[in-house]
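Hi R.,

Here's the chain you asked about this morning:
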Amino acid sequence: MGIKLNNFRLTLGKDEYVPIMIGGMGMDISTSKLVLEACRLGGIAHLSDALINALSDRHFGTNFTKDRLKKYKKDAHLLNKAHAQFEVGEIYKAVRLLVEDSMNKKQGSGGIFINIMEKLTMNNPKATLQARLNAALDAGIDGVTLAAGLHLGTLALIEDNPRFRDVKIGIIVSSARALKLFLMRARKLGRMPDYIVVEGPLAGGHLGFKIDNWRDFDLATITKEVLQFLAEEGVKIPVIPAGGVFTGRDAVEMIELGASAVQVATRFIITHEAGFPSRTQQRFFNCKEEEIVVNMVSPTGYPMRMLNDSPCIGTGIKPACEYLGFILDENGDCSYIPAYNAELERNPGATKISVKEKTCLCTFMKSYGTWTCGHKAYKLKETSNRLPDGSYQILHVEDVWKDYLNSEDHSHIKPPMPKEALAMAQAGAKAET
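And the predicted structure, written out as tokens:
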């Protein structure tokens, strides 16, 4: 019998978990249903607060985005969007609604965490980030993972919260150097992180590397460098590698390096509990390796991995900052706005334009048009059954979960084929003979 991921456990403080952490996928890809199921199974999964006001409108009947549009629509012609400010109280309420709803439904021994990105600056970086963090803590979240940024000032924003010392806090880094900078600030507050997610270059979505050098790195090497740095510092913090951990065997190899658990995401985008529409999930099943690209279309300035035919690429929709505007910086700017206006100037009178270099990320995240995935998404077809109609069986979180825990090699344990599909397949095979 080989070593399985199920032979290990992740310990964070007084709590013990199955060593699987599902990353936060926004907007509304890592749904509350997905997170609750992982929690029931004893692991950790992340809610995402990406586009949180729009998420709240979708699930909780609020009108935050509608009210913003009504308030700022008359100024939509302005090139700078500093006028389109978010109401901090609304942000707090939106995050609190999401977290409380999930925490109230929680079952099992797992943990419900939330992924909070520093790069979602929302036209007022400090105040909006503080509201999001405090709302999550006040709503009872089990853990907070700080993502998409160095977060050098983030801990100070919540040091007065009563749960600052109790809630589990982690950070995503892609190098020991980035971790060193964060730990310097953490030491000053006497609040070290409870875990560290080390994200490698094969992850989906935004990457912590440069567009011209991400290929020069690999997850195992970065993980070892982080572990060595922590050992030299005399600090014991669980390290959780992420990005390209596609099988249970991949996960075990990381733990054998010294990691405490793994963070995964791509294999869960094709589950019933995930937010992607079924048509998009079938596209993921059918993708080829060469169709998975890293580009610079995100206005955040980070490289981003996605399918090459993602609807967000090359479109020319009008900026939706008065309606959404989650990536507006502290000056009211977003790099999509000048790219869009430059294309308009190059094509005066055109009824349709194509902006190649950037995308209106907020709009396409909201409409499921940003098809982000890890590099190994082309292997998803190997993890499911091909049904008689040519489509692939959509899985459940538990199917993928058990495969990670129980597979001993690089093969995949496929879920049972649905009875109706199995009967059709057997009938077809009988007819052929």
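Confidence is low (pLDDT under 50) at residues 429-433.

Let me know if you need anything else.
M.
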